[in-house]
Protein 1
Amino acid sequence: MEIQERKSGKIYALSSTTSVPEWLGERARRNLAKSDSAFRHRITLLQDLEMPVSSNKVRQSPDGRFLIVGGTYSPRIRCYELSEMSMKFERYLDSEVVDIQILSEDYGKLAILGADRSVSFHAPYGNHSVIRLPTFGRAMAYEKTTCDLLVVSSGKRVSPGAAASGGQAMGEIYRFNLDEGRFSQPYNFTSALRQKKGVDADDTRVLQLGGSCIAVSPTHSLSAIGAEDGTVRFWDNRAPVNSSQSDVDLTPFLNLDVASATSGHGFFDENSNSGFPGEVTSICFDTSGIHMCAGTKGGNVALYDMRSSKPLFIKEHQYGLPIHTVQFHSGSGTVLSSDPKLVKIWNAKGSASSTRGEWNDNDGGFGDSRDDEGIGGALGSIVANVEGTADFNHFMISGDSNDPEGRNSGLLICTGEQEKLQSFYCPVLGAAPQWCSFLDNITEELEEKDGALEQSAAGGDAGAVQTETVYEDYKFLTRAEIDTLGIQNLVGTPLLRGYMHGFFIHVGLYNRIRAVAKPFEYKEYRSQKIKDRMEEKRASRIAPKTNPQKINAKVNPDLADRLQAKSGSKTKAGKAAKSLVEDDRFGGLFSNPDFEIDEEAEDFKLRNPSGVASSKVRNDRDMDSDQEDDYDNDGGDFDANGFTKINDENEKWGSESDDDDGHNDFHDSDSDEDGFQGGKIRGELYENKRKSSKDKKKKDAKKKKAKKKQKNVMYEADDYVGGGASAIDIGIGNVSAEADANKSANQTAFLDAIEEIV
């Protein structure tokens, strides 16, 4: 926010910073805020209050709730809802905007004058209808009593013969009746002719001077049209108009010569500027209907009392550029007139104690009014000059729903030759509108700070400067942040200042509240910083390869495994597999039974022959491994060529007797009373003895089983005869060992046969 110092007060330029591109990231915005103080101290009056290239016109709806802006490029209009402080909609047009008129209380009915001789009517749903004009339009106004849309047209080209004959050229003001939906008889006025040289030296064109601006009085139905010949013509819309073209009511009832009144005033440079300096370029009425202002192309503004043909005052703009907008401000009694370089604010009513600046019949001129500056000064005295960063095209005083016309408002919104619309707050004119009332709080803080600095510079209390606060020392908090800090009770107090959708709080107070609400925040911040630095150091190391999370597939598990294995590859197939695994849209492929793949189907086998063959090989391998597992679990005999497992029941290697004491379940008896000697009998302790013997057998069986697992298994070669020889000598398991065994057996059999014979 830029502050312009004036004698009467300060002017705050709310949009002095350049616009920030939409594509600029949040990190770049933070860096820009650190380096650029203007960007850091900026104020966003309305969100997206800008155009791609430039803006032409700005209007506010009669109910004060909406703002309509026309701009380019491409040609468009934008509607802003002031209560929401943001853009409501945007519509594109076929041609550039020349003028805009709001026909209803809100944005529901719009009339847009285009540069292609068209007037388009817009409804809430969009473009409703388009009409064409006979000539190009310059300005437009709406007359409520007759429901007529008045369009000022440019001059027509006149043939050299008609110009030589001395005939009068007639200018026209087109009237389109919105109630009947048709053109009415236009207003006519006598216009002068002007010669204009063409490209060639011999090419001379004769043009009729047309109108350039129009205004309708809000008090009485007077329509004033400013023309290129420097004359303001008046029509009374209350007079009945017949359909006859020669009706006298179609001609103006009064002509006011502004060019003659402003002749000799101003700083118009004929060498650098072309055209007639007395041409009327802007007109406006005040709310009382008594005063009128007319701006000329030469940079002069004439203030008139409607009861007199002599101007009360003529205000000169030193740049000598055309005046494009003039407006009364009834709340402060001033007039705002603007050329492309600045907006000049000056007094329209002289003070009761001063006669300076009023008409003096003795010298036939105006007195000097430069000394009595400020509100309530002499007539025509300067209140303030508002300078922008780009050329102005149009301006308006923005109001609110209680003051739609901005009579007591101090907010100026200007269109110009730049992207952003320029906005200025002038407390000397009035308070800020209700929809941006936070501007008053900001300016009050700044003025208090400046007052404390002046007091300190004059030798006052220097400590007062440190206690005062300014806008830059405040932090913005939303409703959610206020609830988090637990300071809802401060809402409505001077400690929290309302702004848009939140509040401003002093930075010092905010830091103290935050330290109480979050006492361990610094420790958490420090630990998080340490953790981040450790992570940065670890990032330079070789990161371990992380296995992707396995898919929990209830359906098609084989397909899920294959896709999971391929997803780690960087090939085209791997990327496709990864997209299938990670995309939630294919989640039903592994969870919905309707998508289960039947690998036994004939169609599947024909389409995937390689997959069927690989699955068959995989199944065969699984069967072989299952057989080996069965053999190991069942403890089957070793099936090897030429070997037989030695039965451990016949030969017990280092085994002990099952019964350590050599007793069995029965007792030998030597008694003769038993019936026979040595018979097996059952004594009294037979049952106890049997139970203990069974328990002992179970323990011995467990021991035997454990030893069986640990002891070595012995094998012997088949058909081995010759127990005296060592198995190592013949080579167990060798083919030559089998041959030697057969040979030894044959020899033994031969020797036995000889012994029998002998």
Protein 2
Amino acid sequence: QTAVANAATSQMSTSKGNVAPAQEVSKKGNSFFELPHIVLNVENPLGKTVTIDATPTDCVMDIRQFLLETPESCYFTCYQLQMAGDTKVINDFAELSEYPELKQEGKSNHLKMVPGFYDERSARTHVRRLREIIVKPPVHITQKMNPYVSESGSETTTKKGKKGAKSKGTSEKLHKVPSSDILEKLDLLEYPKTEKSQSVPEVVRNINFSAWNPPPGNRRLRGDLLYLEVTTLEENSLHITCSVTGFFLNSSTRDTFDPSPAVTDYKSHTLVELLKKASHTFSSRFSRLMSRKMTKHPYEVVMRPYPVYEWMAVKPKHAYDWNRAEDSLLTTYGMEGGRGVLRDWNEEYQCCHEMPRTNLVERILYNRTKYRVYLDFREAAVKGACAVIDGNIPPINPMDEERAWVYLYNKIFFSLTIDGRDSYKDIGGDRVSHCNASHDLLGITAFERADVKELYTLATLAVDYRGHRVLAQSIIPGIFHGDQASTHVYGSMDSTDSIKSSPDFHKLMLKAAKKLHIKEHRVVDAKGNTVTLASCVETKGIIGSDRRHYVLDLTRVFPRDANFPNYQKNPTSLLRPELVEDFCCRKAISTIVAKRNREAAAAAEAKKAGKSAEAKNEGKNTDQSAPPAADNQKDGTTDKDNSKSDTPQPDGKAETAQPESKAKGPKANDNAYISEMESIAFNPDAFCNVKSPDKKVEESDALEVAAASAFLLNNVIPKLVAQNFRLLQDSPLDGESLKRIMHKHGINMRYLGRM
């Protein structure tokens, strides 16, 4: 939960308000960190108890997942949770807060895992779970410090082997090791540091589905669900029947089918307990398997939500896994066949966008839900993209040329990032299409951070596989059913031949344009019509059949790079969002500082003029007017204290403006900064082959973009090289880290030669 909160905190700055987490916690009483903790003692069917610390916002399904990963209850899959002394079944999809009986803060709440009845789906899940445990069993984790970094610098413990020799650990303190010795000991063969994994004892030869499946009709009426064939380490072949009440041994062999119970008549609700009765070796080794202990850092225990590919990694061991073999043979390429229906990725993604985010708890739930949907979409899109490249999914337009094929599978639209329609034939072809996919992802990310509630983007993923780049997108409702279901209301569908701009859609685009520094500008289409846009002409606005306003093709959200002004040669040379934000920030600050300096200079000039006027008046006036002024000065009051003048007094401003700003706090400064930031905008169609009705405005827009490009060339790049690299503030170790550092400072990789 803390990790989720930290992940949510990193995205709070992009939402409206920019309220610091600490300030928001102090302002709102329903903070996530103020929720009471609930202690649950869950008793499994064997009488063992598992203690779980939870909060009222946790779902019962999270409790079941925790029990599934705990060695004491990992092989129980078909059960119902009930409160101790109560027959009421707890709903798996409800939150703990919906059960007042569990809100006993500081007291333990007792729950029971009551065995339930199997069906065919739950029986297959049970067998699959046992296979997973045999290959990768859960272990008891003991927390330890970071194995790679010694924070305290204390000596590490050394152990002696059988011959009395010391182990590979060192007894020297890290800060005492000379740098020359460290450089001599560096060896890439020792990276990454991997601990020797404990060998997993073999508990059974195999667990297969019997060839007698499926059960005949008369046996189905008796409750038989499926048949298993298990070979134990004693080389005994066990034929097992899974029924609605559990598992038992039957009298079948490979030659004869006899579903009646065997002579031994072992029965159990779980397959593990049945095998323990039927095989002594399985019983002893499985008990040893569940009692394994391992010392790991908490970060090493958390499973990665998606595979990570490193440039230097240990070759994984290809283990003997029945589940993996079955999945590869019966793959559905990311489609969840067990659910019975296809998931509507677009609806799930847009429902996340519509979730409230007014306080910290709602933001945490929003980020958690959206991250889960994203991971599921990522998994399905990657499998579907690989299937497209492997040729396992047919195209929806097989009559067109192969380069123009597109694919529709699992409610995801797949397209290759190649110029299949010859749209960029004269300016780069496939290279431009390949780069536009990356620009599209940057544009979608920018619009997501802009967080315009009525404006929706598509769930998009770019997959690089076997030399191809596949763009996977969720589907706009009604887009494949003609104009009657979905309507194109903004931007251009066919280059600049016809450009649309709906007033309602334009208002939504203006909200995003203020935050993304996009300038509202006018363009002329091929028919001579003048249209006002708050985006580039390629950006499209579509109203789907669900009446949501979708924006897509966000390839040119950011302005072009004026250092590469030739659009024919460099059509994809755009400024990075980090540079645009940095330039606008510096320009806004410099504008505010210059404005305040001008005000201070004007105040000083007025003060000087006021003093000269007072000197002239004192020479003309008689001595009778001097005592009252002296009295006022003695009393500590001025004319401004007694009456307010219509014209601002310089002395009063110098004396009262600073306390007023202190009393207001940083709000006035923040408002001035925000308004100044929103006033800085760039024309995304500058330096492009787009006609403008006003040449002067077009030239001024080009000068603004050129200023940002010059800032990149003359300020950002020299600073990165002279300060960050030479002073070792940033030290790139490989090409990936160099690219990450350059992109963080808003520098494109095409400037590597310049650096």
